[in-house]
Every structure is written in C-alpha cells, then in structure tokens.
C-alpha cells in the first residue's frame, strides 16, 4: 500500500497469533498494522477453508445466490451491458459486497423538489463502482459471435486523504498531514474470451468452464517477477564520513522504506519500474489543471515531502488508480511557490484528472535520469526506469536491487525495502552465506472467480457456487423428550454429587436410620 509506513512485518509463515504490547515501550505503526494483518489472515483463511476458493450465501430455502448474479442485456439498449445484482460473495475468503447504497434524501426546499428517483438494486457493467468502464474503448464481446465468460477480479489498494478528503480531520488544520490511510477491497466484473481459456465451443459444461478458468486464474494471480535487494558501500562513500558511519553500506542519513514498483508491465524488454524512498506516500491533491500547469492544494509539509524541479510525478486519479494502467511519468519543470503551482514537462493524458469528483492528485517518485554507475547513464522510458535483469541496479545511497532473469511483470507489482541507519544496511532476507534471497512481489495479488458464461441473447449460464446458512429453527420438543431430558439431568447431578448437596454427617445419619429400619 502507498502509505507513510516504517515497515511491514507480517509474515504468515511465522504463525504469530497476536501482537502483545509491553508497558513503557515505544509504540510503532508496524506493530499495530501487523495485528490487523494477523486478524485479517485468520478470518480470511477460516472463510476460505469453510467456503472454498469462491462462493456466495444462498437464501433460506437454499435455492438462490443473490450476490453477483449476472444478467446479459443485449439488443434492448443503445449499448450491450451486464446487470450485476447486489449481495455478498467470497473470493479466497475476502468478502466482496455488491450491495448498492441507497441514495440520500435531501431536505426539500420551499418550492418543493421532486422526489429523488430510486436507483435499481443492481449495478451495470458501465457504472460498477471500481472498474470505471469507458464505452469508447471497453466494448463487451458479442455472444452472438462467440460465447464469453464473465469473471470477478478482486484486489486491494490503499486510499489516502488525497483520494478521499473525508479521511482528513479538518480540526487538525490544513497544515497538518493526514493521520491514517485505508485499505479498500476493489472488485471489477470483466469479460474473458473462451480463446484465453483454451476452451473449444463443443463442450461448454459448467465443470469444464470452471476447471479451465481455475487453471487460467492460477497463472494470473501471482507475478513471476522476482527481486533481491542489498546495500553496498558506494565509491563516493569517503566524501561524507562525518554524516554517516565510515563502514556503513547504506549511506542515507535517515531511516527509509524504499518501494520498487513496476510501472509498465510485460517481459523484461518492455517493463519499466519506478522507486520511492517514502513508499510512494508523497502525494499532492490537485485543485485545477490548465495545460501543463497544475494547481495544487499544497506543495508539501517540509523539504523532505515537497516537490523540486527535476522530480518525476504521476498525474492520476481514483479511476486510473483502480484500473491499474500505466501513465507516462512527467517531470516537474518549474515551481510557482506563491501560487502553489507546478509546470510539468507535458500535458497529462486526456481523460485523466479532468473530473474533480475523481480526486486527481500527483504522486512523487524519487528516481532520476542521469549517471547510474561507472559513467553509464540511465535513459528513462516514459519517465520510468527500464527493467534490466541479471545485474545489480543502484537506487541511491548504496541501495541496490536485482531482477531475476526470465521474469514477467505487471503494473502495480512492488517490493518494500527498509533501510536503517542504525545498522548501515537494508533489511532483506539472506541465506546462511548472507546472499540476498530472491522474493516475489509483496503485492498486488489478484483474486479471481468465474460468475457466468454468456452464450447468447437467451441469457447467461450461472457459474457461481453457493453455500447454505448453518443456522436453522429449533424443533419443538414433545412431553416425552422433555421428561427424558429432566431425568438425564437428575442422573448427571447424582453421579457428580451422591449426597445431593447434604452435609456428610447428615447423609451418614440418614443412612444409619435406613439401615435400622
């Protein structure tokens, strides 16, 4: 997640069940965040173990699954669409909610407003909240030509106050930074051709389609790219012996959480990456865009979290953050401090940041174009750094990264590298010989589930799985059952306490009387 963090410490393989706070100790964000991660992991693992990879709750009669039922609507409107019915569904234990919120009711004015029209209980393919489909470029396939599968793509992304201003506590004042970020479950209903699933039209049974989809989803969920990180004492280390320990391999003067994130996906020859020493958390809400000039709500809180000429920024908004599409990174060419404006190297892409309700913002990245190692220069591609596999690539202050050969990369894949001044090194797993280990990305993990097979105008074949509720009504007990239960309780009490609650002396006296008789 793009947030101002010290580090992320949750590792499921360590099998920790809770974080225990100790008295008189410093409280760290990493501890609180690990407790949240432990609870989420436990809850989602339990849900996945009980439900399976995906499934939705049936109604009380056990017949219908409400959440994410797909209806194909073609030929009746100007443009084909899907109706996505509201309700709950679970994918890999993650709760996905398609319930459409009811519109608020405004206070009527004196003239008397008309009633607010009621929204339908379903979403359409074009207005689903997290997909931001565009009819100009996101055409639905035609089932008349070839059937297609409709599936659910679920993943999580962070949201800060730049994207959701309601997260900011205005009582703290505009000069104060935001407090905590949020993590959002993103769901997107998308089409998939049978060719991508390697299915022939001759056999389109539910089991065949589900099996082919699961095989395809397994390849899509995780990235094949791997990265290692280390800290090496750079050649210029002797230039600042007073600022940093002479033997330190990490030469930075502050603790950092480096984020290396894939910008443009694909094979290594096409892929690019960007990096940030602040985990990509330095963002600037945009008030207005005028050509290459951008009016900002703020230029930063200090000299570490501001903008300078030469910085590369990502001009984006909520829609493009959710679509996970790579946009060209732009260079800051000029600053207008009194006017809170910056001039970018080019005008942002059309359709990005033009709608205020999508909360456009700039995200700063810290890579630079220039000398990299031994006279070699870094030639950027679209403002990002080209991926080079099989060699160590320096970032800054002795921090280096290594991309393994033969990897495939996806936009949004990222790795986190804590760098610490106390050790003069980065925190990265190593083998017994202290060689850095290659790691898969920390995210983004896609969770995929099939919803329907659209075969034609007659409708869609439901591919969802369902489970019944565990609770049921208690049957009424008859007199014989109640008497049997009472007798069982008496026998149980007698076995536990033969004296029936009397003192030992009283019990012995009663036994002697019974014997005399």
Q: How do the strands and helices of this protein lay out in sequence?
A:
Elements: H1 29-51, E1 54-57, E2 70-73, E3 81-85, E4 88-91, E5 94-97, E6 122-124, E7 148-159, E8 182-193, H2 194-197, H3 206-221, E9 227-231, E10 256-264, E11 266-267, E12 272-276, E13 283-290, E14 293-296, E15 312-316, H4 318-323, E16 330-336, E17 341-344, E18 361-365, E19 371-373, E20 376-377, E21 385-386, E22 392-396, E23 399-403, E24 408-409, E25 414-420, E26 425-426, E27 447-456, E28 459-462, E29 466-467, H5 479-496, H6 504-516
Give your account of this protein's structure.
By secondary structure, the chain is α+β, with helices and mostly antiparallel strands. 15% of the residues lie in helices and 28% in strands. It has 6 helices and 29 strands. It has helices spanning 29-51, 194-197, 206-221, 318-323, 479-496, 504-516, and strands at residues 54-57, 70-73, 81-85, 88-91, 94-97, 122-124, 148-159, 182-193, 227-231, 256-264, 266-267, 272-276, 283-290, 293-296, 312-316, 330-336, 341-344, 361-365, 371-373, 376-377, 385-386, 392-396, 399-403, 408-409, 414-420, 425-426, 447-456, 459-462, 466-467. It has a 6-stranded antiparallel beta barrel with strand order 13-14-17-16-15-18. Strands 21-12-10-25-26 form a 5-stranded antiparallel β-sheet, with no helix packed on it. The chain has a 4-stranded mixed β-sheet with strand order 5-4-1-29. The radius of gyration is 30 Å and the shape is globular. The N and C termini lie far apart (85 Å). The mean pLDDT is 88.
